[in-house]
Every structure is written in C-alpha cells, then in structure tokens.
Amino acid sequence: xxxxxxxxxxxxxxxxxxxxxxxxxxxxxxxxxxxxxxxxxxxxxxxxxxxxxxxxxxxxxxxxxxxxxxxxxxxxxxxxxxxxxxxxxxxxxxxxxxxxxxxxxxxxxxxxxxxxxxxxxxxxxxxxxxxxxxxxxxxxxxxxxxxxxxxxxxxxxxxxxxxxxxxxxxxxxxxxxxxxxxxxxxxxxxxxxxxxxxxxxxxxxxxxxxxxxxxxxxxxxxxxxxxxxxxxxxxxxxxxxxxxxxxxxxxxxxxxxxxx
Amino acid sequence: xxxxxxxxxxxxxxxxxxxxxxxxxxxxxxxxxxxxxxxxxxxxxxxxxxxxxxxxxxxxxxxxxxxxxxxxxxxxxxxxxxxxxxxxxxxxxxxxxxxxxxxxxxxxxxxxxxxxxxxxxxxxxxxxxxxxxxxxxxxxxxxxxxxxxxxxxxxxxxxxxxxxxxxxxxxxxxxxxxxxxxxxxxxxxxxxxxxxxxxxxxxxxxxxxxxxxxxxxxxxxxxxxxxxxxxxxxxxxxxxxxxx
Lengths: 260, 244
Known about the structure:
The structure holds two protein chains of two kinds.
Chain A: H1 2-31, H2 41-50, H3 52-86, H4 88-103, H5 106-117, H6 121-145, H7 149-157, H8 162-200, H9 209-218, H10 222-250, H11 255-259
Helix pairs in contact in A: 2-10, 3-4, 3-6, 3-8, 3-9, 3-10, 5-6, 5-8, 6-8, 8-9, 8-10, 9-10
Chain B: E1 5-16, E2 19-30, E3 34-38, H1 45-53, E4 60-65, E5 71-73, H2 85-89, H3 91-96, H4 104-113, H5 130-142, E6 148-152, H6 160-177, E7 180-184, H7 188-194, E8 197-201, E9 207-212, H8 227-242
Parallel strand pairs in B: 3-7, 3-8, 5-6, 6-7
Antiparallel strand pairs in B: 1-2, 1-4, 8-9
C-alpha cells in the first residue's frame, strides 16, 4: 500500500513532466516558434550541455553566496532573538522596525546595499542575509519566550539561575522554532542570491546564476535564460530539502513537543 | 513519626483581580503526615499548594516550612521533551550541583522506587505512556530526597486502574521515605484512602473542615469497602456539599 503511494507520488509528476516536454517539443516542430520567444526543450538541453561548465560554475557561486548569507542570518537571527527575549525594552524598541523592514521589497533595498557594499559577493551575501534574517529572528524570539509555564515553575522551584533557565529550558525549547525559521529562510536564500547577482553581480570575476539570467535576457539568449531559471529552482529545492532533512534528524527528540 | 509541624500555614489570604481565592486559611501539617486537600473546582486548592511551594506569593499571611524546599509534582508531568527520562530525573541534581558530572546511581535508585524499568529510563517522554511520564515526574521530585512532597492532582488525567495502582505505589513510597505529603485532589475517595487527614476547602476559599482519617496505617484496596472508610468519605462529602 505504501509502495503504491510512493510510486504514485514520484511517478505521476515525472509522467506529467515528460508529457509536458513532449507537447512543448511537438508544438515547436509544428508552429516553428522563434527561439527568442520560446526555445524547444531540445534546444535548451543542447545549449545547456554546450555551456555546462559555465552554468555549473554559476550554480556553485550562487549556492556559495546563499550558504554564506544563510549562515550569517542563522547566527545574527539567533543572537537577535536572544537579545529580544532577554530585554523587553530592546524588543519593544526594535521589533516593530524589524517587521517594517520585512515589508519592504528586497528589490527596493538591494540597490542601496549595492551602493553601500559595492558590486560583488559582499553585497550579494548581505542581500541574502537581509532576506533570510526575519523568519529566523521571529521564530527564535517566539521559541525563547513561549516556554511552558510549568517548566518555568519547575525551574523556579529548584531555584535555577537565569543562566540555567536559558541553557536548560529556553534554548532547547527554541530549537524547533529556529529550525522552522531556517526552513522558511532556506527557500528565500536563493531568491536573495539571484536578485543580488542580477543587480550587483556585474564586473566581478565569478558570476552566479542571477548574472546569467540578466545577461541572457539582455542578449536574448533564451535557452541560457531557461537553463539558469531551471538551475536556480533546482538549487532552491536542494537547499530546502537539505534543511528539511537536517531538521528532521535534529528534531527527533522534540517530536512530542511539536505534536502538542 | 514525629509531630513537629513540617508545614505551617498561617492566615493565608490570596486575592487576584478583585476576587478572593483563599480566605484566612490556617493549618499545620506535622512531619511525616499525609494530608489531602479537597474542594470544588476553583476553590484555591492548587493556589494553596503553590503558595506552600513558594511559586505564588500570598496577598497576606505566611507559610513556614521545616527543613528543605519541598518537592512538587504538577498535574501535568512537566517533562523536558528533549531529555530522556533519566535526564529529566537528574535535572534538580544538575541545578543544585552543576559541577558534578554523573548522578546515575541516585537516578537509578529513584527510578526503581517509582517502578520505572531500566529500559524506560533512556526513553524520551514521547516514547512513554501517561502513567510512565507521571512516574518520571514523581522520581524527579524524589531525587533530592525531600522532607515534604506537594502533589497537585498528579493522577487527574489517568484512568481509574492506573490511578489506583499509582496511589498504592505512592503510599508505599511515603511509608518507606517518611515524608510529609500535601496532596491536592478533587476525588474524595482517593483523598480518604491515602490520607491521615483531609482538609476541605469551601468554594469561597475558606477552610470548611479538617477530618481526621483514622483508618489502619497499612492501606489495602479492600479497605474501600469497610464501613469506616464509607463513613469518612460521607463525612468529607457532606462538608464539601455544605461549602458549595
């Protein structure tokens, strides 16, 4: 029964994809659609194979920027969450502006970041950090603050110090929340990296997928554009899946808490 | 057993949001005695216990405790889900002696006392049944070898068979450990069966009565069918009805 379910989950999307590509290819043969508007799947594959080294290198550069920015967001987000949970004054003073910052579209902030940090990897990493920071901060703050009052009573009963309460209850309690925030952020990192490279990835030696998207659209290399979009999406899926797998392993101990 | 007061509650008043939760509650509990507190829902039973534990400050009045801080068993097992049963049991020891690295002997000792199998102490709370989780919670309370144990309806969420089994085990622990026990419950029969005294709180937060339960010290489930048990249960129930 389970095998049948797995087959249907995996097989049906693959069959759909193959049918979709076949219809697309046949439509191209019948109507001779111009390559600039819509290249055929075969043309995209042929060009991608020809430029495989460039595209893979770009994918790795984008992944690198996303990972560095994501790591920074994890460290900064956890530190900020910790600060917000410890100090009510800091939380009430700064938190509303964090929410405000989150509502500003990243494409509106990106040029400012590029002006401040210059074009290149530094700006791209900052953009990734900014876009992925907020879900981590909010989740960690919630996790540190939403501790079962019974557990806090227990710690009071045994006269635990604030330090002991933080390390024995609050931080472990915040782990599932941090992981949830990281899951949300992991998908955003590729968006941030591609936007950063699109807007500020010029004039540097190592160019990522965002730069390829920009250049191929400027030069009407639609095959490369499609390949870059596909690789960006694939990178996003890999990033989200990796974080989900890590979180699944990490959260094994917390299952009861999550169920509750 | 000695009769030095282990817990002395003196004219305790508790008001919250304009409502009176506890009104002039006074009583003394001698060392080694098992006293149960019964009363209708919302009469302040748990608040009284929290005041004794120092978790809630009364508006006026005071609580005097003889010896160490009493241990507390909450209505929920209140376990840290990311720690194994052993990890939960040793938490109070870790908090008191952070530099020490292993408490396994003491943990095993109390785990055995509450009927936890060796295989269970490495399990996480989610892997344990409700009864086992409560056993872990009781073991955690006992690990510091307290003089007094405060229990806030610990078996309320358990089924009747398991409840009676745990009652029996708790009685055994009380007899062997020579502790003072203050036990909050809404179950009159349970209170009478376990206790040497039952204090009844009225709905308005005053003490409605203090009934001595002069049943034999060795409580056997068969005692529940004796005329004396039924008489005591009826007496407590009558006071409860009058205080509504």
